[in-house]
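Extended Data, record Major allergen Pru ar 1
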Amino acid sequence: MVESEPSRSSISVKAASLRASSTVYSIIEGDALVDVLESINYHIKIVPTADGGSICKNRSIYNTKGDAQITEEKIKEGKEKATGMFKAVEAYLQANPDAYN
């Protein structure tokens, strides 16, 4: 299990495919949504590179409540938090390769 900073956010996993190296999940409630977001959808795909490494492609879709607007600053903050979570998961998996084999 991977733990991160305590949060009141709930994550709903909509789909996951390890074979395709991609996943889609949504945050549907909690402080990550501030007061203007209904949900955030994350689309993550890991693509292998020729040198044996990989590239992580991440697409985030912010669904606002009504006509609410979200600032670029808030999007940047969210991206930084998502990057931190990704790095924590990456570090855990590198330290515990049996967790995914």
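Summary. Residues 72-95 form the longest helix (24 residues).
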